[in-house]
Batch of 2 targets.
Target 1
Amino acid sequence: MNLPWAAPFATGPVHATVAVPGSKSITNRALLLAALSERGGTLTGALRSRDSRLMIDALRALGVPVDDAGDQVVVGAHQGLRGPARVDCGLAGTVMRFVPPAAAIADGDVHFDGDPRARERPMSTVLDALRALGAAVDGDTLPFTLRGKGGLPGGTVTIDASASSQFVSGLLLAGARYDAGVTVHHDGKPVPSLPHIEMTVAMLRQGGVTVDDTETNTWRVEPGPIGSRDWVVEPDLSNATPFLAAAAVTGGSVTVPGWPEKTDQPGDVFGEIAARMGCAVERDERGLTVTGPERLSGIDVDLHDVGELTPTVAALAVLADSPSVLRGIAHLRGHETDRLAALVAEITGLGGDANETEDGLAIRPRELGPGLWRTYEDHRMATAGAVVGLKVPGVEVEDIGTTSKTLPDFPAMWTRMLGGVQG
């Protein structure tokens, strides 16, 4: 087991420019769409991390040639997905929820498994949907086997996607390759992380696929080919938030270059959240810059559509001078870990004051002390611990290596950002 990482303590304001790697969400969608086009495609600026490697390995297992040795990732032309194959999902939700709907058109059996924690994550929604669309699947959670028949009838399916937007996105991404396309109706509580579904729809349209999303909670993908194209991957804005948070909690200033003017990434909302907590936020030709205040204010905010920002926002709330309430995030109990329980446990473990609510967290100011911040194999828990450690001496992060899921060199990036202010 890796030794705990001593989170660097900042002795002064952090001032830095931090370039972050490409978006995981865009990278893995683009990889899958390039594979489903059968004519391939290229990705410039693609993320190189555990999650993207798992997606590439999954596609290779299904017979898709992928060259990721150079500056670009090149998905080659091929004759269709095929089995028998074994797919390791690791702990990547985009692999375990996006690849099975694509593998449903493979010729041959495809066996899926993943990390022990991945076996606890909800999968029945997407697997039952595939059965309703004509697929044969053995199992309801990882591990499971999909009996590929070389195609899928498709059609209309009603699901409850209130646990994850990935259930919708996975079906939509592959739907154009089904005989009748796919129409997905959501019937349940509001779908979390809607920006991720909007990202999926936008990328399908960029690939020449016809998508009708004019009706609330209904998405229709017409059958047809997916075009080959060159994808340019934006910086991962959610991965940028811990670095921007460093400016917020230390009263410094951090710029993330290449911040897109318009994007479907949920991380784009972080600027608004930081501003509400007292930060100055500026978007210009340099990128996005967050400048921290003398004292952070607490916040009452609904994070339902941007739940992946919760650990970073919780870290800010812990260091604010007034109470915070984070709402609309009950679905985080089914993420890499139960993020709500994990955040409460780690905040209170350092002497903080936090509790779960029905749909979120309540956090009240209290002086924190040194201790171990556990990560639960969750990359965003790890980066949240790093943010807290900037202001609380003696914080150790249990497994900083888990950040390789989406940020392959986080510790080195964090150290470079701190420069001369590290204690």
Note: The two ends are 26 Å apart (CA to CA).
Target 2
Amino acid sequence: MTDQAALDRAFMRQALDFGARGQGTTWPNPCVGALVTQDTADGPVIVARGHTQPGGRPHGEANAFDRVGPNAAAGGTLYVTLEPCSQRTIRAATPCVERTILAGVTRVVAAMADPNPLFRGLGFALLRTTGIRVTTGVMEAEAQRAHRGHVLRVTQGRPMVTFKVARTANGYAGGAGGARLAVSCPAASAWVHLQRAHHDAIMLGIGSVLADDPLLTVRLPGMAGRSPVRVVLDSHLRLPLDGHLVRTARDVPVWVVATEAAPIASETALVAAGVEVMRVSAGSDGHLDLAEALQLLGTRGITRVFSEGGPTVGEKLALAGLADEIIVSTSPNVLGEPGIVAVRPALAAMLADPDLYALAETGLIGHDRFEHFVRIS
């Protein structure tokens, strides 16, 4: 690796890390990280950082240029985690390619191309026509993972899904009959809240709602505003009107996905309480079609879903090829009697198959051990 290649990777790593700060706030747009460097006698230094802002605008490059001020980027290098956009939109009259050219940078380093085949490579080509040197593919694998939700929404019409389940040392997520268990230690619970904040939506099945009456908000100091949309998979519209989710629906959005046959009266009552009800087809088992539900979320702009939907939903997602990342958290505590199995047999077999899932990382969060699996594309 040349010195320049090493520098490019180091700066792109920072752009990726900076971009990750906005995850969960920028949908329907990807959270792009960008930074601008200038050469000095002591080597290149960062003069500005930016990432896509809440609601998706301005984009990361524009945010970085706004921070650096007029002319300060001239002659510098722009590092960006995704190909700069080349098309004008209603919300942004000036695409990032144009902003980059006007800023006067002489080099652009990008991690990956636009996944949309209509625009892939166009931004790079336009930059090159003005004499800007363009280097692509720097830390591309890392960028593909960071932008996986955006890529899947563009190419498959659905968001990426991370399924998370917590279990006792002997493998149970719930007590006998579905009784609620406080499985995770405080540090692991706080980490889960942080994961919620970095996703556009939290999704769970109605069974988990009925068993736990969860709130599903981000309850970390100063981060209440980062609570994502709460999505309930509720084929027959059994969501209780007096539960935490419905009672707080006007504070943090609650979307319920039901089948076309679910009772109209139940929908009317939920809508009156501030819940949005959406309908999809039913599968052969009478329950809603998960793939269609995720496609529906994609049309609403959702790119990243954190599923805390319980073992049954998690296994169904994996079997349907819809669980892109799976996090299994294991407590050192033991349940003294048989309960609800956290990782059901079919899911366990899939996680053990190296052709289906790769173990991306493992470690400790407080007293709990976690394993993070990534689906192999």
Note: Residues 3-146 form a domain with the Cytidine Deaminase; domain 2 fold (CATH 3.40.140.10).
